[in-house]
């Protein structure tokens, strides 16, 4: 029994701890065995074949019998492999799990410790097979490479910087300064004289450190107290304040320097006005403060009165008095001062009522507030500038024109009138511009009126403003005349309103336009034309042209559909009047041949529509003509004006002289494209200079103008200052003669070189893998 | 009258003429060859600079002889029979008191820089007897550590006779090993199985390997840009790599017409010089694929080693025909002290040349070099070959299904693989 039990257990567990445990518990548990065995037997091998079960059952039953106990010690089961160490389980190839074995233990509480230990064993995992050597080495190498790459990556910025550097001076090591640091000097020094001692005491009181940090504890504390952002903000604020101050100072200085008296006068007045305004404001808001202010003003006035400033007794006043006889300005200044004096010396009525006083001040305010431009205008009117005068008068005239019976909206004109009220000095061009605008507005108006009613009635209505607007009169005259001629013409055609409608006002303005070959101006018109042609095709095979239709202004466009009908009508009429031939044929009006089939025609139509605007052939011809002109050798005119005759502005050297000094250019060889009408051959390229030119854009440049720019900036001292020349010609690499240039070091570029020497590292771990390394290894192997 | 005085007119043409003249004068004054140091009885196999002294140069020859030269006097100051067979490598200690040599006789020897006193025998300070032949040596830039290469890369402490660590990756012989001058724990090596391997000395492990089309003879680290190194390859090209991105070289420098045997950076890190089997040395700017200068003489044979001096003014090259030649790094540079006016003129001319360098005439003059017939014809030949290759490639792309033949850039073409 015991052997059997042991055998079964042995067959499944090789764990040493379990074995020892088993040995311990063997003796005590023997008593319980029969029951357990039975249980396990029935449960474990439930799926075995019936024969064996039956056998077992028989055995169990026999074992119940007390006599046969000893017999059970014999092995009765069939084993595949009989071995001392390895007893296989019943089912070959079947795996026994620890849980199965623990099943029987569950019930008994005395086996708790064993169970616990078994559980611990169960939780432990078996160690996996080690990787093969190559694999391990590869992983080692990878890890090592990554490490090295990390170390090297710190050099990237240095290398990049050196590559892009304007100038590199070798050797890179900075030479050690010969000056010893201050702490070394100070260490062996003592304060002896009283002054020195005093200074030392002071320093000690502040705890001023002499060594490296150079900050007193107070300073340090203050530094820590303020955060970086705060400090930055504060600094920015200070900077701004400083900048503002400097701007203000500069402005003040500039203003002070201005010599114009008028300017200062204006400024002073402006200030006074501003002060008054503020005062008004203050009076409204805070009467008490206003009173105080008033008192102050009064005091200032008193001071002014007390002074002899306006008594005509000063040096300036005396000199002015002398000048006043001859100089208008001086006289004016004198008068001003006298007036001021009078004003000051005038006895003030003692204010009985505050209202009166207020009224008085208000009066003053008004006096001051009256725009001085009014005065200026008057002055200008007195002044010698006739243009200004005219502008004013014209403005007023314009303002008068606004009182039109029709009351048409004219924002520009209003603006004009406003500006007239303001009356700022108006420049000549502005006047002209204004006149032009006026004319335009009038034109518009006339158009509108034309649209609105027959031209005849318009004349009578406009008659009120005719005196002022001579142009308008001329225009309307023209219009009338035109209308009449049209009427005559139209009477033959029978389309009076049509013609009237068609007539744009621009025609009168620019009669030259009429003589131009008429051309379709917009796409819409072209479409219309196309439609027209369709109509024509329907009605009459002969293409009909009419010049009047093509000319149209944009403001006529909205009522296009209406027009179409009329056009149709007109065409009919024209068809009837076949004798009338069109004088000018439009270039862009497409002509259609009857025989062309529909598709082709459509295609052509589309292309023509698309390229209606550009005349390629003409452009090309023009281009070629220009090229030919440009390539022709030019005559050289060596005439020097003023030599041997009178010279000066507006004088030209005589024709004889010009003829004499004009060197005629020899006729060049015939152009290569002379007989090729469709080709332009550029003969500019000079093979002699080709060798001295760049054929393709060199590498770092991305555009030709960059390259040209670099070439065009001279670097020689002939064109540059000495400083600039030196700067421009600094060589990229400078080496000091006789110096050994050592390889770059970490210390040279501010890095800390590794403290451990390579040798020490290599001796510490020769071919051994550190634990950290192992961890990395494991990680990478898992990955 | 205009506001501009007449003499300010026509700046561009005037400067152009000045630039043209400067370019021509540069070619007129281009006399780079300074001296030839003769004394070796066999081809010069390796060179080394003195770290503290500009005038001292060491060289090892193919017969095991090491010579120390004084450049100012242009003579040999000391001769040592260091090894039997080739002196495979030579390097100086960072302090300048001693130097190391490795030879074909499987030994590493440390020598004092100063010669022996009167009556003393010339003997090395230390001798390490190894198991295999060492093909190269380099000393750490700050510590008493050096690295040798042969079958594997060994890191040695100067005080010990056994390497403190050996690193290997693959089983081919390593031809050269170089310490990074800035991050001194990094090493680069190139092996004859066409690869370049980077090592980390502190972690005692290789880092990455890049396999090229052909064998790399040697590499050199940029002393100013930590992660940049240049490899001299057998396929006539030099490849500048960023060690963090090995799959694409930063630049392919192609001007040589035969295998490139050695490369060395200018201490400013802006240029490097390469020695080639085609009997010439060339100077390349780091960021250009074409060389800016080629030096050759009638008598100079295959150049085996080359060094740029520490003040970046001169170049030394040792060649097969037993001579060490000294060249100016800048062919037309005036030697000696310059007055301030001379300096200003030089700077101005330099700037002018730079400004107008794209103009065809100037470009042509500046780029034109006389070449020995062998090199010239080789260049022509290779040009034809390259063109044929390109044409074929274009045709192949043209006549195959779009996308089936990938277009590989010149930079990527020579990289076989990057092994992690």
Automatic annotation (TrEMBL), chain A:
Start-end of Polar residues biased regions? 547-556, 752-763
Region Disordered: start and end of each range? 347-569, 752-783
Cell compartments where the protein resides: Nucleus, Nucleolus
Listed Basic residues bias regions: 765-783
In terms of one coarse class, where is the protein primarily found?
Answer: nucleus
Q: A Pfam family name for this chain?
A: Utp14
Biased-composition ranges, Basic and acidic residues, are: 411-448, 516-541, 559-569
| Highest taxon of the lineage | Eukaryota
- What cellular-component terms does GO give this entry? cytosol; small-subunit processome
Biological process annotations from GO: rRNA processing
Q: Which PANTHER family match?
A: U3 SMALL NUCLEOLAR RNA-ASSOCIATED PROTEIN 14, U3 SMALL NUCLEOLAR RNA-ASSOCIATED PROTEIN 14 HOMOLOG A
Family classification: Belongs to the UTP14 family.
Name of the protein in question:
UTP14A small subunit processome component
Q: Which organism is it from?
A: Papio anubis (Olive baboon)
Automatic annotation (TrEMBL), chain B:
GO biological-process terms attached to the record: decidualization; female gamete generation; maturation of SSU-rRNA from tricistronic rRNA transcript (SSU-rRNA, 5.8S rRNA, LSU-rRNA); protein ubiquitination
Broad class of the protein's primary localization: nucleus
Which parts of the sequence belong to the Sof1-like protein domain?
329-415
Q: Which InterPro entries match?
A: Sof1, WD40/YVTN_repeat-like_dom_sf, WD40_repeat_CS, WD40_repeat_dom_sf, WD40_rpt, WD_repeat_DCAF13/WDSOF1
* Subcellular localization, as worded in the UniProt entry: Nucleus, Nucleolus
Residue ranges of the WD repeats are 37-79, 253-294, 296-337
The family annotation for this protein states: Belongs to the WD repeat DCAF13/WDSOF1 family.
How does the record describe its quaternary structure? Part of the small subunit (SSU) processome, composed of more than 70 proteins and the RNA chaperone small nucleolar RNA (snoRNA) U3. Component of the DCX(DCAF13) E3 ubiquitin ligase complex, at least composed of CUL4 (CUL4A or CUL4B), DDB1, DCAF13 and RBX1. Interacts (via WD40 domain) with DDB1. Interacts with ESR1 and LATS1.
Q: Protein name, please?
A: DDB1- and CUL4-associated factor 13
Q: Which organism is it from?
A: Papio anubis (Olive baboon)
State the taxonomy lineage.
Eukaryota, Metazoa, Chordata, Craniata, Vertebrata
